[in-house]
Amino acid sequence: DGEVYRYYADGEWRASASGKSVAIVNPTTRKTQYRVQACTQEEVNKVMDAAKVAQKAWARTPLWKRAELLHKAAAILKEHKAPIAECLVKEIAKPAKDAVSEVVRSGDLVSYTAEEGVRILGEGKLLVSDSFPGNERNKYCLSSKIPLGVVLAIPPFNYPVNLAVSKIGPALIAGNSLVLKPPTQGAVAALHMVHCFHLAGFPKGLISCVTGKGSEIGDFLTMHPGVNCISFTGGDTGIAISKKAGMVPLQMELGGKDACIALEDADLDLVAANIVKGGFSYSGQRCTAVKVVLIMESIADAVVQKVNAKLVKLKVGPPEDDSDITPVVTESSANFIEGLVMDAKEKGATFCQEYRREGNLIWPLLLDHVRPDMRIAWEEPFGPVLPVIRINSVEEGIHHCNASNFGLQGCVFTRDINKAILISDAMETGTVQINSAPARGPDHFPFQGLKDSGIGSQGITNSINMMTKVKSTVINLP
Ligand code: G3P
Asked: Ligand 1 atom 4: the closest Cα is on which residue?
């Protein structure tokens, strides 16, 4: 009906002076569902100025008060779970139940962040000088954590709410202000989430949310001199941002090609269940999804059969029906996935199911006997298509995992815990899960990627620490 969602600046909902908007296409209907403002660079400048001013006062606001407001926002967020989940269903085709879980998980994350913040930021350190050679006990160094300033948060489409609050919560509790640039798909869910923070009563200008085309305001935001920290989750863009960003701390979580290594002694039912959950939940559109199965030849037939038996039972359809497999986020994403499938076909992979696609909806597909010369052995489809590579030794599996340019997570299935730990040590990934599929949560666990999968570590505690700096005062005695 021509209505355009407003952006959030200086505690107000505003229409952009550009008079332009960006369409959000529903992945299921492939029709425009919502429109958001296409903010201008001038508007970004204003937001940055306001964020800088608001931050100074916020940093002086007592920590317990900051925590109190975050708890309030968390409760409001949970109260608004239904309308926010509805947006997730329409904008990113997240299955209805998962959409609600994302919002609830986000509320819990914000509360936990407030609690964790008052503990870790409420502590400082005292050092005395006489432990270093040549010094008397005449200097006392008091150090505590201070905020960085303005934090720029850029979450991805697959968790527009959860991966926004995982940046907003730590930034705010630590005394920073925050500028959010939501993904286009998921922007309206993010605006609703920001509204919950608005209702909680945070000071004007402390939180802002600018929407628009990445091509117009993306670089302008990430290279803006007013930004003191960037927390980004997404794809390759992160690598480009890291090259252009100024001298500011970066927290990045980019892609992954998480391997699932299954040994002969593994519980085969457990392996199959985790391949399906890890590879196909939210249609494989998670950076922590299982993206390559590396399985010992002797158990491969049995596991492939078990996985196939589960795949036929998955419900394929619209997210409103709470289907397991829903349309992927955009047509170009579906085309990319199809490209990987066709490449594997030409090079002789075994199709365990017939390849089927209608619009953005792709039916779950397991590709067996994938070889390293196929693109899908290395690239991440971000869709419901999973390659199986048969291996003859554990070393072969570890080698494939480590030859990837990614290093987010991985998993190993075996009943031998000693072997599992040795394999975990050998895998060049930020996390290795033993006997379960990769996953970021629980959200207070450290979460990090090696190589092209990221910079720094996330998880509630690590994010709070990352968004602070140490400040010292030294008392010199006569
Ligand atoms: O894709 C984003 C990544 O953070 C995944 O999170 O909770 O699905 O493991 P999760």
From this structure: 440
Residues 215-260: tens digit of each pLDDT: 899 999 999 999 999 999 999 999 999 999 999 999 999 999 999 9
Average pLDDT, integer, range 386-404:
98
Q: Tell me which residues have their CB closer than 6 angstroms to ligand 1.
A: 158-159, 286-288, 439-441
- In angstroms, what is the span from residue 287 Cα to ligand 1's centroid? 6
> Annotated catalytic, 358?
no
CA 380, CA 341: separation in Å to the nearest integer? Answer: 12
Report the interhelical angle of 162-173 vs 96-120 (nearest 10°).
10
Closest CA to 329 of 386, 387, 286: 286
pLDDT of residue 2: 62
Which residue is catalytic, options 43, 116, 253, 379? 253
C-alpha–C-alpha distance, residues 210 and 212, integer Å: 7
- Residue of 88, 163, 185, 290 to test ligand 1 pocket, by largest number of atoms within 8 Å of CB: 163
ipTM: 0.94
71-101 confidence digits (pLDDT tens)? 999 999 999 999 999 999 999 999 999 999 9
- In 3D, which of 474, 475, 458, 10 has the Cα closest to residue 229? 458
Alpha helices per DSSP H over 80-229: 81-92, 96-120, 162-173, 187-200, 219-222
Listed residue (75, 73, 70, 105) closest to 442, CA to CA: 105
Phi and psi at 22, nearest 5°, equal -115, 135
- Under the banding of pLDDT at 50, 70 and 90, the label for residue 317 is very high
Q: Give dist(CA 259, CA 273) in Å, integer.
A: 15
The pLDDT assigned to 302 comes to 98
Exposed, middle or buried: residue 314 (CB in 10 Å: 0-12, 13-18, 19+)? middle
Angle separating helix axes 81-92 and 187-200, nearest 10 degrees: 160
**AA identity, residue 275:** I
Question: If residue 257 lies in a helix (H) or strand (E), which one and from where to where?
Answer: none
Q: Which atom of ligand 1 is nearest to the CA of 285?
A: 1
Model pLDDT, residue 1: 45
pTM over 0.95? The answer is yes
424 CA from centroid of ligand 1 (Å): 20
Residue of 176, 207, 203, 214 whose CA lies nearest to 193 = 207
